[in-house]
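Subgroup meeting minutes
Present: P.N., E.W., G.H.
Scribe: E.W.

1. P.N. recapped why we're keeping a running log of single-chain structure predictions: easier to compare across weeks, and new members can see raw inputs and outputs side by side.
2. G.H. added today's entry (798 aa).
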Amino acid sequence: MGAVAAATAEARKIAGRIEVLFDMVAPHYALRPGSSSSPGARLARAIIDHPWIVLAIWLLCAPGAAYFALSVKSDNSPDRLIVEGDEDYQQTRAFQKIFPEGQYVVLLAEAGDPFAPAALSRIAALEQALRDVPKVKPLSALTIYRQLHPDFAATAAQAVAFKAFATGTTLFRKQGLVGDGVLGIPMELQVADRDELQVVLHAVDAAVAPFAAAPAPLSAVRKIGGPYVDRYLSEETHRSTLLYMPLFGLFIVLLNLFLYRSFRTLFAFLLTIAVTVLFTEAFAGVMGFVSTIVSSLVPLTVLITCTSTLVYLHSLYVACPSGADIREHQVFTLCNKFLPCTASIFAAAVGFAALAVSGIRPIREMGYWVAAGMVVTWFTSFTLFPALQRLFRTPPSSERKTAGAWWPRIVDRLPGFTYRWRWVLVPGSIALMLVGLGALLGLPRLVEPMRLETDSLDYIDHDLPLYKDTRRFEATMSGLTVTEAWIHVPNGGALEPGVLRGMHRFGAKLEADRRVGSVMGPTTLLQWVRYVQGQGDQLPDDPASWDKLAGDFEQLLLSRPEFRGSIDVATLSNARVRVITRGGFDGYAGLKSFLADAWAEAQRHDPALAPCTMTVVGEGVLQAKIAHYLVPTLTESFAITAAVIFLAFLVVFRSPSARLMAMIPSVFAILVMFLVMRLTGIALNVATILIASTVLGASENDQIHFFYHFQEGRRFGGTEAALRHALLVSGRAIIFATIINAGGFLALALSPLPPMRQFGVVSACAFLLSMIADFTALPASLWLVSGDKPGQDPAISA
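Output recorded in log:
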């Protein structure tokens, strides 16, 4: 009985404080019966009095929204990562119009001795199965040899002859055709779009399946290549979404029943959240956005923000004093929470829209996408949710006991605690923030800045065969990162002997660098031809020999279509030199500088190249540019987000010190999480780079609501009275909203994709840190700024 009486007393204390607050603000909104209402109160009352009309409007729009939401497709290809207006992106697209090509994958046939007759017979059968797949063109060392020896039958003698042919030149190893214990089978997939690519990949899988299941006498048959990585990312991103969405739904169900103990309240929450996500996805469909590993976070972010906003609204609604008119109290709730909710949603929307400064396309689209979701959240929270509250007659705490009756006892102790420890809490928080900043940016000559991940292969689990096989291929045979040197030759002189000789020496200069796996240019084809003809794989260096080589090459262009991939035969004004790298360059600038320096040296040695120009294009340079954009994405978007939130605080709060202090918990959480990331080895990538903007955009809701009610509490007295009032009215909602934020993002910990797992865990920890700072560092800062002491205000009572 004593416990029940205590809980009842605590509930009355909160309800009493709400009633006092209602009496204070009622004249402003004209909420008392018989008075002329303010415009906001009239609109709120119209929504509450006509809930069926509000619901009907949303339901009529829902089918159209569903149509557009279902049109959103998935695409994780590298060319989706850079915005279309980027200069390198546009140059790469222009290059691909001149030199169109399909997608490339590589099969690796492994054996103790891949040149043994039985192994060669199995590889020949594998190649034939691939050749039977439409739109697939396999090309291996065995394919080339069989063009010279059509009667090849993998006998012991012919196997020895083939081994001598395949290992007698470095060309096969450089092109990834021959390695230690492995023969590679590169394949060009001649597809027109992403959908056709998936069809062809599945056909290749079906052709390879019998050989992968029973490889003997081979030891294994492995598949690698960018299309396989992209497909894995798309499938796992979709699977992760299907996993965490139901988990978050279950989380909302359990949390809602725990907090409000009402199925009617639960239904109001779930319907509002579902409609919000539906219309957010519809916006993406209308805009033509696609789902990527980054934008898959959009629904979760909107889910969490919407749920948190509903918690703030409903927590005040359920505190309706016993005997009060529930209709008038609902109007009061909407009016009282309108400014803080609007300010926080607006700040979050513009803050996420600040991601538009990013040169990484999925991040930019995510910014617009989440911003649109924030706008939808605002509309559903202040129209659909109140209508559903009215229709379902969601019970207040006077009718149905809610969670958190223990909170007033915490409030009684918290102001005094933060005052006593203010000189520890504030300096300690500042020190941790500075250490976190150092972990992010590094210290000159002491600590390097945080590592950046841009390779899409790093976004999959490192224990998967796809990851291990690809890394082994890159390290021992060639590489998979393709960069193109696009050479513009004036006056159609691409076949001039001096130009060809210069491009050959340019390629040789590139291949001399250990970071380059192989180089494929126009003259590489001449090396192949000479080797096949028994003349060795080296081209003569004297200028006189190049007259004949140029003539031979021209004849090959006329008779062999496969030779036309490196020269623009329509104008003879464009040539390509494909550079496959293993990494090790100092980012985007380092890669371009390396190629530019090699080209400048080639021009100095070969005057025929002097009027030519070279442009660096291709997926390799686009991938390198992702890292180039990651840091500006972090710093610029965070700065804009912080500035926008500061302006939102400027509107809500009058105190200059309050504007800055209100951001302490969020900034503290973000910087400390960078320290945690550094200590645990988590790198910055296209997902984790969003932590700063996401945490700041979501957690600032807590600070806005806290300070809004802190200012209300100023009417009761000084700092202690204001703190008690803010904690009583908004403290529980802050705790519940934090649990929602942290629990929602923590669902990503089950994702098989490392960036999403890392983003989920780190974000969840950041939200918890922000809440801790809300109730410790923030009140301590207020004590220091105000100079007040506990006990100077009259006691706060119901």
